[in-house]
Amino acid sequence: MVSTKVIIVALVLCLLVEVLYAQESRPRAGNRRTRNRNNNRGNRAGNRGGNRAANRGGNRAANRGGNRAANRGANRGNRGGNAGASRRRCEEIQVPMCKGLVGYARTKLPNRFNHTTQLQVYRVLEHIWALIDRGCSHNFRLLACSLFLPKCAGRGPGREPCMKTCKKTKRICQPRLESFGYDWPAQFDCDSLPKRRCLKMEPHNTCSVDYTLCEPIDLPMCQDLSFRTGMSPNMFGQCNRTEIAIEMGQFQPLIDSNCSPHLKFFLCGVYMPFCTRTEGVLSFPCQELCTDVRDSCAPVYERLSGGLPWPNKFQCHRYPMSTNANYTCVMPNEGAALT
């Protein structure tokens, strides 16, 4: 009996020890789970932080690399664009009061007045075209054209007229302009012009007569017309036959386009008005003829000249109607009956 009781007591003690051991073991397991959870959270946070840092670093590096590549590409594009723009700014002169009439054929824009197109230049020069043609000096044309259409000089800026060229031209031309009721143009500020690397003065020339003469028509474009004699100077004050022929030559491509069968007759009558039986009377082309030529040829001229409008010299209100009893005008094929 005693041994049985001892065995039972021993078993109870063993169970108590196991229970106590189990109770002590549970917190340890919980601590491990807590530590594991904390470790996992730490790992996640570390991963997130690491990823963020890595992303930030990677993005910065990528941005720096991308920006450098973009900047290099942009710089190359700018260099190419600037070179292309520089090439585009040198262009053939199309403005009729300058084309072929100054000592250079190409200009570079923009000019000192920030004109970027020849149409803008034309809109200014058309208002002083009459002064340019008056013939006080060929250098007045050079001054006007090179101020607004500087000579193309390679990669550098366009060449403007020299200060000395401007001052000498002003001394010659200002009195004559004032006699016609014109002031010296405000844009022709001689003191603002360069002294070097500029266009020098050309030999002075002017019309030798101030009245009209009936002379043989020797302009190359007008040799096959029925009229044989014409007036000089013309209505624009031009008397230099070489300059007139050069200016007329600008319109040869327009004649070649066959826009009007009467264009050549009209041009000859404008630049050297025909002599009729009434000596000393300027006989211009009739306004009806002008209107017909303009309507047929103005769109072609605009295309050939790079967008310039029909020249101011050819505005049809300048010419008399055939019904006007106070002025004589002529139509094609009238020369044989009048000469």
Automatic annotation (TrEMBL):
Signal peptide: 1-22
Record-annotated FZ domain positions: 85-201, 209-332
A Pfam family that the UniProt record links to this protein: Fz
Region (Disordered): 25-86
Keywords: Developmental protein, Disulfide bond, Signal
SMART domains in the record: FRI (SM00063)
PROSITE patterns per UniProt: FZ
Biased composition (Low complexity): 39-77
UniProt feature, compositional bias: Basic residues: 29-38
Disulfide bridge map: 166-190, 214-275, 222-268, 259-297
InterPro entries the UniProt entry points to: Frizzled/SFRP (IPR015526), Frizzled_dom (IPR020067), Frizzled_dom_sf (IPR036790)
PANTHER family attached to this UniProt entry: FRIZZLED, FRIZZLED-2
Protein name: FZ domain-containing protein
